Amino acid sequence: MQQPLKNWGLLFLLSLIWGSSFILMKRGMESLDGHLIFSDAQVASLRMTIAGLVMLPIGLNHIKKVTSWKVFFGLAGVGFFGNFFPAFLFTFAEKGLSSGYTGMLNTFTPVFTIIFGLVFFKSSLNRLQGIGLLISILGVVLLINTGTQQVGNFDNSSLPYAFAVVGATICYALSLNFMKHMIPHLKSIHATALAFTFTLGPALLIFWKTGVSVTISTNQYAKEGLFFISILALVGTAFAVVLYNRLTIQSTTLFASSVTYLIPIVAVFIGSFFGETIHIMQVVSMGFVLIGVFVANGRIDRWIKNGRGLLR
Fold first, then answer.
1. 3-class SS at 37?
2. How far apart are CA 146 and CA 125, in angstroms?
3. CA-closest candidate to residue 84, choices 191, 211, 236, 237
4. Does the residue 311 lie in any domain?
5. pLDDT (tens digit per residue) in 207-266
6. Distance (Å, rounded) from C-alpha 42 to C-alpha 243?
7. Which one, of 148, 161, 12, lies nearest residue 89 by Cα?
8. Rounded-to-integer distance, Cα 36 and Cα 76, Å
9. Using CA atoms, how far apart are residues 223 and 96, in angstroms rounded to an integer?
């Protein structure tokens, strides 16, 4: 299989996994029949603790790969900015926003990725990427506008939660650049395991401080919450981050961050299973998003030049 096709496959797989992660966070905090289970900080600490423990053996086995301060700070940046901080910011955001709207706001990531790449890592942006980015942003704006009625009203009281999502997207953008420019020589599985090894200690501390074990032993819905959080930690965190780091290394930061353009599409469809309605304008908006991602990554230009197919 040709590499571009593999990259697109990874992109769509990640969009499916992460597009469903928002509802998993919500279900960790609240049962299917509306009972409160874990707090936002408890969900995040559980998520990071489970993922960290799973990846710990691999991380310890490859600790010798931390051969310089550059590698150390690169791994720490990926661990904390790519996983630890966003885990807490997103669960906090979902206290005041729906899972669908949270997924939509997540589309700021590629914008910040480009900005940080240009400012700190001397990356470049060509005309085609700029056009694609503008098309995708148009699609995102349309999608957010048409989805507002389905995912809940947005007012000033929601601003702290919205800013939390924006903060998480800034973290993701920084992490992408750390991965691409500081530790591109590491295999994705090794980089992921080492990054989670660095964050395991703080995750365990918050796990203990927030009384997760007490909630597990006293809340009758704790098993239900743990089920969803475990899926979130193992599939949506550990496994997905390995795939994401691999995608970042073997493609570009812009291409990898494009997954955040596809996440709202998944979030909207998942929302439909929970009683939300999909309108024709949402479908049109999704089309703009997909076209923008396609153009930004040079597929149109390459297709025109080759004249032989899109995934050549």
1. coil
2. 30
3. 237
4. no
5. 999 999 999 999 999 999 999 999 999 998 888 888 887 887 777 766 777 777 778 778
6. 26
7. 161
8. 33
9. 24
- Burial (CB < 10 A; 0-12, 13-18, 19+), residue 162, is middle
- DSSP-derived letter for residue 36 is B
- Residue 33 φ then ψ, to 5°: -100, 15
Q: What is the DSSP letter of 158?
A: G
Distance of alpha carbon 75 from alpha carbon 91, whole angstroms = 23
CB neighbourhood size of 306 (10 A): 10
In the chain, which ranges are continuous DSSP H helix?
3-19, 21-29, 40-61, 69-79, 85-93, 99-105, 109-120, 127-151, 159-182, 188-209, 212-218, 222-233, 240-250, 253-257, 259-273, 280-296, 299-306
State phi, psi for 78 to the nearest 5 degrees.
-65, -40
Half-sphere exposure of 308 (CA within 13 A, CB side): 5
Any idea what the Cα angle at residue 300 is, between residues 298 and 306, rounded to 5°? Answer: 100
CB atoms within 10 A of CB 3: 9
Residue 124 pLDDT level (bands cut at 50, 70, 90): low
Question: How many structural domains does the chain have?
Answer: 1
- The answer to whether the beta carbons of residues 278 and 272 sit under 8 Å apart is yes
Residue 312 forms part of a structural domain: no
**What SS3 state is found at 274?**
coil
Instruction: Determine the structural domain holding residue 132 and report its residue range.
Output: 3-306
Q: Is residue 79 part of a domain?
A: yes
The letter for the amino acid at 252 is: T
Amino acid (1-letter code) at residue 126: N
Token pair, residue 266, equals 């998944």
CA-based end-to-end distance of the chain = 10
Q: Which two tokens mark 92?
A: 């906090």
Please give the pLDDT value at position 201: 95
Residue with tokens 């979902």: 94
